[in-house]
Amino acid sequence: MIKVLIVDDHEMVRLGISSYLNVQDDLEVIAEADDGEQGLKKALEIRPDVILMDLIMPNMNGVDATKAILKAWPAARVIILTSFIDDELVYPAIEAGAASYILKTSTAEEIADAIRQTAKGQTVFEPEVTTKIMNRSKIAADMALYDDLTTREREVLKLIAQGKSNQEIADELFITLKTVKTHVSNILAKLEVDDRTKAAIYAFKHGIVKPAGDGSSDHIPAV
């Protein structure tokens, strides 16, 4: 029997979910809480197998409650069950340690299945959440490429994005043309791009250089 704690400030939500879960052979709602503080207290008292956690609640929100629960009880399995898919809520919830993230638009059967999978140590994410996590991971990986650049290579990259030619870069940095070419070659290899234009796009995309003019790129990198 998988024991479940429901933490949600809407009584009708709790009632609807618990009514379905309690008629399942392997699920049992053993407690409910109507805010984060009460949810934290009950979670640590009864140690349920899975905690269904709303995000927007009085006294203590779901992110803070999840953090507090996992700090005191690292083995807890928390499922965020919410109506919100906004970045400012998704990422903090995942970073807080939530094992799964599903929406209230899910069917009762889907919620039950998510509880079963989460209890087994698996993770269940709403498709949109999975996409957000993957995109954020990609951005982080992209920035890791930039971190590999030396200080001089970063200077050269910024000048490339500004449309400077190799000779202009050499003149501005007081280095030889050969040295510039070496830096450019290293930059392309480290950023895993094929040419200067793509390197410039990388710089704009990641906020390393702000596009000139009205917010769009006015410069075409010199070849």
From TrEMBL:
SMART domains: HTH_LUXR, REC. It comes from the Bacteria. Residues 3-119 form the Response regulatory domain. One of its GO terms (molecular function) is DNA binding. GO terms for biological process: phosphorelay signal transduction system; regulation of DNA-templated transcription. Pfam families: GerE, Response_reg. The keyword Magnesium does not apply. Residues 142-207 form the HTH luxR-type domain. InterPro entries: CheY-like_superfamily, NreC/VraR/RcsB-like_REC, Sig_transdc_resp-reg_C-effctor, Sig_transdc_resp-reg_receiver, Tscrpt_reg_LuxR_C, WalR-like. The modification 4-aspartylphosphate is found at D54. The keyword Transcription regulation applies. Keywords: DNA-binding, Phosphoprotein, Transcription, Transcription regulation. PANTHER family: TRANSCRIPTIONAL REGULATORY PROTEIN YDFI, TWO-COMPONENT RESPONSE REGULATOR. This is DNA-binding response regulator, CitB family (Rec-wHTH domains). It comes from Lacticaseibacillus sharpeae JCM 1186 = DSM 20505.
